Amino acid sequence: MSKRPDSAALPDFEDPAYQLPATVAQNRTRVKKGFWRKLLRVAGRVPFAEEAAAAYYCALDPQTPTRVRATLLAALAYFVTPADFIPDVIAAFGFTDDATVLMMALSLVSGHLTDKHRAAARKALGKTPPHEPQENSENQPR
C-alpha cells in the first residue's frame, strides 16, 4: 500500500492482482486487431501458422479457463507486436522467438486446445477438407 495518509481507501494499483485484468484486456485488444493481418502476411514463412490460429480460437473461447486465455493472449500479443527480441525481417531467424514463445505457451496449456479450435484454425487457413463446407465465423480473417 502507498504511504499516503488517504491510502486506506485506495487499492494498491501496483499489486499484480489489479494489473493482470488490465494486461489481459490490452493483450486481447492487440490480438483481435492484429492477429489475422500478421498471420496471413507471414503464413507461408512460419511453420506454426496452424498452431497459432488454433491458439487464437482457444484464447477467444469463453469456455477456456481465464488463466489459459491469459497465457495464450500474452503469447499471441508477442507474435503480433512489431518490435520483438529478434526482428521478423531477419531471414531464417526472425520468427524463432515468436515460435518459441508460442510453443512454450501451448505446451503449458495444450490440454485446453480442443478439436473445435484446431478445426476452426484449419478452416480459417483454407485447409478445410473438400467435403466440409466453409462457414463464415466472426473471428475468421476478412
From TrEMBL:
Classification via InterPro entries: DUF1232 (IPR010652)
Which compartment or compartments is the protein found in? Endomembrane system
List keywords of the entry alphabetically. Answer: Membrane, Transmembrane, Transmembrane helix
GO CC term (a single one): endomembrane system
Tell me the domain of life. Bacteria
Annotated stretches, region: Disordered? 122-142
Q: Where is the DUF1232 domain?
A: 69-103
Q: What is an example of a Pfam family matching this protein? A: DUF1232
Q: Does Signal count among this protein's keywords? A: no
Record flagged with keyword Repressor: no
Lipid bilayer topology = Multi-pass membrane protein
Report the protein name in the record: Conserved protein
Source organism (scientific name): Tepidicaulis marinus
